[in-house]
Structure formats: structure tokens, C-alpha cells
Amino acid sequence: MGSSINDILMEDFQNVVSELLMRNRSILDILTKIQTSSGRVNRSVVKAVTHCGCIEIDGKKQVFPGEVSMKHLSGLMSTQLKGELCPECRQTIEKEIGAALFYIAALCNTLGISLYDVVLSEKETLGTLGSYSLR
Q: Of 34, 78, 90, 129, which is most buried by a Cβ count within 10 Å?
């Protein structure tokens, strides 16, 4: 299979990460940076709720209807979100997700793993298993 634009973009991203990661090359540093960046993603979403108020979380027990096909189940389940991200919160959350992706790519580089191959493999697994891979 030839290289697609997505493959090239993902490989370029990994190369840029490799060039820019100077201080935290240790696997231990990378693992802790992944955890920290994940916490920052979570915090930025929470701040959109608690400080800005552009979105609300309506966390209630999800009700599963009795007889419904797996195909229709996702349409019946709630995200438990109300509202829409304002431009400022969206920008902050995107920035934090980008930082998390940076450290995931750094981990892939350190372990000699292609991030594109990981994404492709996961997509194929989800496609193959279909509703049996629900998470």
C-alpha cells in the first residue's frame, strides 16, 4: 500500500516531535508528561464548565432501553453535555489535546512505534469487531 497523505502527515508530526523533544527524552519523563498533559485536558474541559459556563454536564444514570439493536444504541446514549464550547474554551482544549498528542508521539518515537500504524491498527480492529468492540 502506498503512502497516503494521512500517513505522511502523521510521520511528519512524529519527526517534528523527535526534533523538538530535547529535555524530556527519558521514557520516565515522557510517561509522566503524558499523565500531566492528560490531566490538563481534563482540567480545561472542567474549566469550560465551571469558569466559563459555555458547556454544562448533566451527569445522570444512562438508561438502556430493553430491546434495541447495537446499531441504534449509540443514538440513544447521551454525551451528558449541554451547550457548545465557546471559541476561547475550544482553543484551550485543542491546545491541551495537542500537547497530549505530542507526548504520545514522543512515546511512540522512543519505543520505535509508528503512531500512524497504531491508529490504522486500532481502526481496523474496530471495523473488524464492530459492535463487539464497544467501549
A: 34
